[in-house]
Design a protein that fits this description.
There is one protein chain. Strand 1 (117-119) and strand 2 (122-124) form a beta hairpin. The radius of gyration is 18 Å and the shape is elongated. By secondary structure, the protein is mainly alpha-helical. It has helices spanning 10-32, 41-70, 82-112, 132-167; strands spanning 117-119, 122-124. It has a two-stranded antiparallel sheet.
């Protein structure tokens, strides 16, 4: 379950890939809603799932950060340069910031619009008082960061593939389930 010197443990690996699946679902819900007319049941359902899954990403990220704090990060492959290590650190900080900020911005946007924030049947407290102007501003930031998220996730995946197929190091293998 815990990390070793050379690779991540079962828990961090499972949460990494589960987070990716949740992000795919979050993005899919908000993109697919465009295929349905405003006010329609399918569109509203996709928006509700977007909100619920986004809040789930927030909780999952909190658990991931606790696990990261409790477990030492496996050492990087010796072929990874200090510049690459710095880039990886900055990328991880950016990704974790995105995974925390996006759900909070979405939650605050709904709160500012005076809407109930539901999470699988549980009504969550409002983060801010109703304020349409602030809600519009927060929604704009949320949308912009959503676009930034596509690029961060893409660069993260490309860097992993670069390390595996071009550099030939163990960077990507550390986050894959162990083979018997």
């Amino acid at each position: 379950m815990s990390n070793t010197v050379s690779r991540y443990g079962t828990f961090p690996i499972a949460f990494h890939w589960l987070t990716l699946l949740l992000l795919i679902a979050v993005y899919a819900c908000i993109e697919l809603r465009e295929f349905f007319p405003k006010g329609s049941d399918p569109r509203n359902a996709l928006k509700s799932w977007h909100f619920m899954l986004g809040i789930t990403v927030f909780g999952m990220t909190g658990l991931r950060l606790i696990a990261r704090w409790l477990n030492p990060t496996p050492a990087a492959d010796s072929s990874v340069t200090s510049t690459q290590r710095l880039a990886a650190t900055l990328m991880h900080v950016a990704l974790y910031a995105l995974l925390l900020a996006m759900p909070l911005l979405g939650w605050a946007t709904l709160s500012g619009e005076g809407k109930a924030v539901m999470w699988f049947g549980l009504e969550l407290p409002a983060l801010i008082m109703p304020n349409e102007g602030l809600a519009e501003w927060l929604e704009e930031i949320h949308g912009t960061l959503g676009t930034v998220g596509y690029f961060l996730i893409g660069f993260h995946a490309l860097a992993s593939l670069y390390h595996h197929y071009i550099q030939g190091d163990s960077t990507m293998l550390r986050m894959l389930p162990a083979r018997s």
